[in-house]
Amino acid sequence: MGIPFDRLGWLFARWGHRTYPEWAEPILRDWLAERPEGARIVDLGGGTGVLTRMARRLRPGLDYWIVDPAGGMLRHAPAGARTLAARAEALPLEDASVDGVMIGEALHHFSDPQAALAEVARVLRPGGGLWVYDFDPGRGVGRWVYWGERLVGEPANFFAPEALEALLEELGFSVRTHARKGRYVLTATVLAERPREAVPQG
Ligand SMILES: C[S@@+](CC[C@H](N)C(=O)[O-])C[C@H]1O[C@@H](n2cnc3c(N)ncnc32)[C@H](O)[C@@H]1O
Question: Strands, DSSP E only, in the chain?
Fold first, then answer.
């Protein structure tokens, strides 16, 4: 079972923006403002590009890539954004070739989110940034989303924000989390001086 994303592109293209609370937008704006001119930004598990549309409105002119295994979602991507059909756990991207990765309401859908985050750490340049929006399975609305996704047979690989912070720190990121009522936005930066053993090798 599970959500048939490949057949639901029309639905996410129309309603997907509703998942993002208003308070997430200024955090995204500030995060985008820190990216260099022309930066390569990967929208991972980006689906129909809902987050890319929001990001392009806030910071036009960056090189946005929507990466997702579901062709039926990618088909609805906005014109001008590049698309790549791939799983987050095996990114067909060079080491240290990306300036920013955004993961919006997608990390908990990945079958192996730890492997996906190791891939994110591998493809990001030193100083590169990660922006994650997700639900906290133990608080507020996050509890309902967690149980709903378990019922429909999704992986439901949710992280409490504290657990995600700890994992990213191990991978060589500095992390900041903004949490409200069972939702959170986490921003993280690859430390320029991260220890070599923290960098996954491609
Ligand atoms: C709820 S949708 C969110 C899409 C988009 N980020 C948005 O904000 O509308 C979750 C997405 O994760 C994708 N996905 C599921 N497993 C994945 C994986 N292993 N690697 C990358 N994307 C995956 C799905 O195909 C789907 O497009």
Answer: 40-44, 63-67, 82-84, 98-104, 124-135, 173-180, 183-190
Burial string for 74-94 (b: 16+ CB within 10 Å, else e) reads bebbeeebebbeebbbebebe
188 - beta bridge partners?
130, 175
- Sketch out the chain's domains with CATH numbers: 26-96+111-192 (3.40.50.150)
List 173's β-bridge partners, or say none.
190
Residues paired with residue 129 on neighbouring β-strands, in sequence order? 100, 189
pLDDT in tens, 159-192: 999 999 999 999 999 999 999 999 999 999 999 7
State whether the beta carbon of 47 lies less than 6 angstroms from ligand 1: yes
* Cβ within 8 Å of residue 201, ≥6 positions away: 95, 122
- Taking the centre of ligand 1 as the mean of its atom positions, its distance from the CA of residue 20, in whole angstroms, is 15
User: What would the two tokens of residue 51 be?
Assistant: 């987050």
Minimal CA–CA distance to 21: which of 104, 107, 119? Answer: 104
Q: How far apart are CA 192 and CA 22, in angstroms?
A: 32
Query: Which residue's CA lies nearest to atom 2 of ligand 1?
Result: 106
Q: Evaluate: CB of 132 within 6 angstroms of ligand 1.
A: no
Mean model confidence pLDDT for the chain: 95
**Is the CB–ligand 1 distance for residue 73 below 6 Å?**
yes
pLDDT of residue 196: 60
